[in-house]
Amino acid sequence: MLDKFFSTEPNFVLTVARIVLGVVMIPHGAQKLFGWFGGYGWGATLGFFSSQGIPVIIGILVILAESFGALGLILGFCTKLSAFGIGITMIGAAIFQRQNGFFMNWFGNQGGEGYEYHVLAIGLAFVLFFLGGGSLSLDQLISEKLK
């Protein structure tokens, strides 16, 4: 069971997908966890989620997925779990922002951002969830040790 959790293909394409998704997600997590990059931090983020009808436990899971999940992707540690958390988070975010349409708000003429970014993140997370973190991942090292 544990060997399947850490299993991965020694594939550099997966490595690129893993690192790119992690690097893109970690600032979002840092906004919610620490208030960095113009974010509001843990308490205010949970307060915002609550004001939108999102249960506190879901808010906590979102913050953990976007911060520690993104770090896990960058390191290639628990890639499948990290990708699952980020994928579910992005599905929720896409649903939450669906009223703004598909496209990002490039020209400021929409009520908010669309969900195209979320679809890309979901796609990368899907691949990583099923295939693992690829080459140069801690998962690959652990998988080799388990064999």
TrEMBL record:
GO cellular component: plasma membrane
Alphabetized InterPro entries for the sequence: DoxX, DoxX-like_oxidoreductase
Localization per record: Cell membrane
Keywords: Cell membrane, Membrane, Transmembrane, Transmembrane helix
Residue stretches spanning the membrane: 12-30, 42-64, 71-97, 117-138
One Pfam family, short name: DoxX
Membrane topology of this protein: Multi-pass membrane protein
Major location (coarse): membrane
PANTHER family noted in UniProt: INNER MEMBRANE PROTEIN YPHA-RELATED (PTHR33452:SF1), OXIDOREDUCTASE CATD-RELATED (PTHR33452)
Similarity annotation: Belongs to the DoxX family.
Name of this protein: DoxX family protein
Annotated organism of origin: Leptospira sarikeiensis
